[in-house]
Amino acid sequence: MDVIYSPDHALHQSPGELNSGEFVAAFEKPERAQIILDRALAVGLGPVLAPERFPLDAITRIHDAGMVDLLRHGFAEWEKLGRKGGAFPFTFFTRGFRADRVPQNLEGRLAHYCFDAGTPLTATSWQAIESSAHVALTGAAAIVSGASSVFSLCRPPGHHAGSDHYGGYCFLNNAAIAAQHVLDQGAKRVAILDVDYHHGNGTQQIFYQRDDVLLVNIHATPEQEYPYLLGFADEPGAGAGEGFNLNLPLPWGTDWEAWSAALETGCRRVAEYAPDVLLVSLGVDTYLGDPISQFKLDHEHFTRMGERIAKLGLPTQFVMEGGYAVAEIGINAVNVLTGFEGR
Ligand code: OKP
Ligand code: ZN
C-alpha cells in the first residue's frame, strides 16, 4: 500500500512534558516517524508519497477556528512575551469557569483550548501539525479515488484532539479530518476503529452526536489510564449518534487473548454498520515494551491484528497515532500493515 509521509513532522519537537510530577523528556518524538518510515521501506510496503496541500477549510470542518488560530500563532505571542521553552498552559478550563467566553489573553486561550501538560507548542510546531493533517487528507483522497488501502504516517498524532480542545500530544484530529473529507466527497458512512492503547477522547467528542461515523475504541480503561475522564463503557453516543459509539475498555495487563476478543467484538460492530470506508487510528502503544503503557501485545500480535482488520474487506486508511517503544515501533506498526496485506 502507498505510504503518505512528510519530513515536516520533525518540525514539532516537544521540549518535554510534565509526567507524574516531573518535567521529563518527551515520549512523542521525531524518531518515532523516522523509524516507522525506515521499516516500511525495508519491507517494501509501497511507494512513499509526499502529502498534497489542502485549504484550511478541510481542517476547520472539524476544528474551532479560534483553536486553530492559537495553534498557528500562539507561539509567536508566547515568544513576544519573552518566554522560553514550549507554550504550555498554566491554568486548565474546568467546571465553574466561563465556557461561553474565549479569552483574548494568551494564557487564557491556552487554558481555554489545551487540556494537559504534555502538549506544548514550539516555534515550528504548526508546520508539523498542518503537515500531519495533510498526510491524513492525502490518504483520504487516495481512498476516495479508489485505493483499497493506504497508510498515512501522521505525526504528531491526533485522536485526543477534540473540536475545540487539544492535548495528549495531539493538536489536530487527523483521523477525524480524514473521515470528514471522505464524507464530503460522497461517502455515506465511515467507521473509525481506534486501536491505540489510550482512549481517543477527541474523536469521540467530535462524532458523539452523529450517525454517519461509527467509532469503535479499544483502550485501557479510564479508571486506570489517561485520559481518565472519558472512554467508559457507558458512552453509547447521543441524539442521532446514539448507538454509534462503542467503547471497549480493558484493564492494565491485558494480553492478546483478551485484546483480540475485544477486536472481534469491534470488528463485528463495524461489519454490521457496513461503512463505505474504514479508518484505523493505529497506535501501537499496546506493545508489551511500551514505556508508558500496560498492555501485553507482542510483535506477532500486530500481524494478527492486521489480518483480522483485512477480513472486513473494506477500503481502509491507516492513520498513525501513538507508540513510544521507539526501537520497536517500526516493526509493530508495519506488522499491522503487512498482516493486513496478508504477507
Ligand atoms: C497519546 B496517544 C500520565 C502520562 C500520560 C499522555 C499520554 C498521551 C498518549 N502519567 N501521558 O494516545 O498515544
Ligand atoms: Zn496512545
Automatic annotation (TrEMBL):
Is Zinc given among the entry's keywords? yes
Q: Which coenzymes or cofactors are required? A: Zn(2+)
Coiled-coil region(s): none
Q: Keywords on this record?
A: Hydrolase, Metal-binding, Zinc
One GO term under biological process is: epigenetic regulation of gene expression
Histone deacetylase domain ranges (all copies): 28-334
Instruction: Kindly give the SUPFAM superfamilies that the UniProt entry links to this protein.
Output: Arginase/deacetylase (SSF52768)
Instruction: Report the InterPro entries cross-referenced here.
Output: HDACs (IPR000286), His_deacetylse_dom (IPR023801), His_deacetylse_dom_sf (IPR037138), Ureohydrolase_dom_sf (IPR023696)
| Pfam families named in the record | Hist_deacetyl
Q: Which Gene3D superfamilies match?
A: Histone deacetylase domain
So which domain of life are we looking at? Answer: Bacteria
Query: What GO molecular function annotations does the UniProt record carry, in alphabetical order?
Result: histone deacetylase activity; hydrolase activity; metal ion binding
Keyword Hydrolase attributed:
yes
Q: Record's family?
A: Belongs to the histone deacetylase family.
- The name on file for this protein is Histone deacetylase family protein
Q: Which species is the source of this protein?
A: Acidisoma silvae
